[in-house]
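Researcher: Sequence of GABA permease follows. Predict its structure.
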Amino acid sequence: MATTQLQKRLKTRHLVMMSLGSAIGAGLFLGVGEGIAVAGPAILLAYVAAGLIIISVMRMLGEMVAADPNPGAFSYYAGKALGPAAAFAVGWLWWVQLCLVVAVEATAAAQIMRSAFFPDVPQWIWVLAFMLIFTVINLMGVGSFGEFEYWFSFIKVAFVILFLIVVTAFLFGLTPGESPGLSNVQGIDLAPSGIGGIGTGLLIVIFAFGGIEILAVAAAETADPETSIRKAIAGIVLRILVFYMGSVTLMILAVRWDNPDLAENPFVTTLTTTGLPAVGAIMAIIIVVALLSSLNANVYGASRMVFSLAHRGMAPAATGRANNRGVPIPAIMVSVLIGFASVLVNAFNQDNVLFIGLNVVGSTLLVTWIATVASHIVLRHRAERDGTPLPMKMWGYPVLSWLTAAALLAVIVLGMFAPDTRTQMLWTFGIFAIVWLIGVIVTRGKSVEEVTGGDELAPDEPHAW
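Model: Prediction complete. Tokens:
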């Protein structure tokens, strides 16, 4: 029996654990070292700045989710606040980003499996295996997805906590390695590259948090979106303060910041310093788990976005159908096409898959976050004008909302002066402009009500907006 509705089968514990693990991926395990290399110990200032931006954006998104949960999330809110073309552009750009990232993550995980464990197995076979496994997991239903993502996130969180404990013990001389005490930060320039280095580090840190916005999509399929998103966002603050900043602080204390190995492989280098065995193999497994966790979440997020777009008349109607268990099978199958296509690319041109994918989608998250902030400012203004009660509110509105918008624009300006990031941003903004123009044509003559309607969730519930 076919339906057009999703089922609310995710539990609050699923969303809370996803909030703790959603951004613990390659951005943390590998990107941290690059940030330390360009900014030195002052990278902590970049984490503070980036953390404040992320927390503010997610609080705004949480306000909108609690008031009106929808699997289209920021695309849906952009439609209500900024018009049909904005909904189309934001939704499709995010969908393309996730589909490409699925291919990138499958490829990265396959490279590690081949280089660290099975050098005789062709890379494309691993990519095919990962794509088949996680397509099946998503086809099993949102409850199965939630359980797999819960345990993936649990493994990542447990490892980071163990890392914090082990390195702290090392610094106190409780492991086989010789503790440096505080010698690695004594008598050194804490900001060796000055403001410019901190700015470059900020860009690296910002991109490391990509994917965190998927919580807004998943919250719509929980029985109590308001409670779930509130707890999940509280978890984000914990993760940034403890996991990211705690890990970076301990790395800088345990290993000299200018050690080239730290830039290349920060966690392995730091753990090796403690004198504990088998670090490389353990770390390789953890990174593969982190990549596959993100792959799983991105297949889910992409399928829900195209499903929502279909319900709002901006995607083929067939992708808006679900089976009697609320599984949007057509949307899932469309969302894994690029991932399966990457199997062929890996077979014939495996060295360029990561480069192509990352250059296209590297800064797409900035568009998503800016759209989120703009939508929040408009919708919050309307709610206050109309006297609409909101179950969850952004702090310090409107001052903090506008300051966050200004900070994101400053990040874009900063990125345009960095050669590596400039390429990503030009790709992203060029694609966004094209998709926006297509959206203007596709949604011509449609009202805001027509592109924000639909019955994606079952059962229907009243919303604040």
